Amino acid sequence: MELLLRILSLILRIFSWIASPIFWIMSTSGRKVPPIQNEILLINARSLAEKIRRRELKSVDVVKAYVARIQEVNRLVNAVVEDRYCDAVLEAKAVDSYLDSIQSQKEELQKVQRDQPLLGVPLTVKESCSLKGMSIATGSVSRIGLKAKENGTAVANLLKAGAIPLLISNTPEYCFYWESNNLVTGLSKNPYNTAYSTGGSSGGEGALLGAGASLIGVGSDLLGSIRLPSYFNGVFGHKATEYVTPIDQHFPSCEGETLRQFFSIGPMARYADDLTLMLKLITSPHSSNLRLDEPVDLNKLRVYYMEETESSLTLPQVDKEIKNAVVKSANYLQRICGSQLEDEKFDMENLPEMICALMMSATDVPKILKDNNKNDHLLLEFVKNIFNQSKYSTHALLVSLVLHFNGGMPKGKKDIYGVAFDKMKRNLLEKLGDDGVLILPTFPTLYQHNEFALKSIGIMYLGFCNLSGFPATQVPMGLNKKGLPIGIQVIATPHNDRLCLAVAKELEKGFSGWVPPQSSVKSQKLEINGIS
């Protein structure tokens, strides 16, 4: 245990408690996005693609329905960086014309189903993941006007499968924070209560998905950047096994020796079944290594669960409703699926120190100030930021400061905590094997805008999977008493992503999965500004 780190964490927890009345007052001013009015928006991607192939729906109508929903909610959630609505409508019309022309050709239709399983389905993409011709500023003032020269391979694989990209979504500057706010696009907001954060760094994706304005999206995950916004916005998100997803063209680059191990690009979706399809496409042609088509017998699954990693006054307390969700999910798998419930709890003491020591020892973390101007001085930029004169966002400067001071972690402790982490990882590998999962909270609680710093130590729940290389799926488990999403994460050993995804799909059946911010649904034709 590192005394300095724990004292700092305790101080932050005390400040969080003191500030709670202020944040409660602020939460009462939040708004929900309007209810979904078009039933097209409630169909999962796999079914939608099938309906488009069978000509039960036209791709152009689907695209227009999503564009209308985006225009309706974005004024509240501010998640869109740059759109391509007109191009998307033209591409959808081309899909419809092609499908109309081959309706009598059974072999051609089968080829479409096999090679383009997302043909005509709308897609949204996190700005940092590179959609050709679209902004790649990633929230940085110094990068305004820069465009992606190529599609990232993960994105390209989904486009090859027929998906139609609608837009790129918001991130923090350089993806450096767990709150999606920057000096270019501004602050993204939670569709369930706009006073709350969308999380980060894939926060724009999370907000659009949670609002029913996106169906499937591409995010990236270094320390929970897919799972945290998926949790905050009540949707599914998957961090894959280390090294299995292509990460080229991402900005900032995470292809260095250390970060490549921790970093992945992956799927975010409102429906669990779509995660499997997307992951298979994203990892193509190497998806066979994950055996995603191999059935999972949940009756033979062993389930471990922990309501928290460590009970300590120095750590953020896990919300009672999240603890209940962890227990309920484990009991459901035992009762309904016949899974074997294991009583053993893993020793994860000192996990915050392990995460901090391993991450702070990485030598290939992008440096914002050095990338933009090697003469910029960190402390001077902080002073300029106070007077709104800095070209760097407050959050990016905070992360840069933490990295500069090594997170308060003595560099000599890296090996000590590295050995402890390896021991914990080996134990989990042995106990979980190829037929076990571990259920943990995704994050201890929810937070409002500018509140993350007070709860930042909770990132240990997410960072554990990145540093170990384990796959993990965030699963929505309904809404809390405040009407905000709660979630859990299902973790397995490397290359057993299919176990996480199968559990997510089963828990969706039992606990409803994504719950719209407003539940009123009726058919209605929506007008789309400037598009015919």
UniProtKB/TrEMBL annotation:
<protein>
    <submittedName>
        <fullName>Fatty-acid amide hydrolase 2-like</fullName>
    </submittedName>
</protein>
<dbReference type="InterPro" id="IPR052739">
    <property type="entry name" value="FAAH2"/>
</dbReference>
<dbReference type="InterPro" id="IPR023631">
    <property type="entry name" value="Amidase_dom"/>
</dbReference>
<feature type="domain" description="Amidase">
    <location>
        <begin position="61"/>
        <end position="501"/>
    </location>
</feature>
<dbReference type="Pfam" id="PF01425">
    <property type="entry name" value="Amidase"/>
</dbReference>
<dbReference type="InterPro" id="IPR036928">
    <property type="entry name" value="AS_sf"/>
</dbReference>
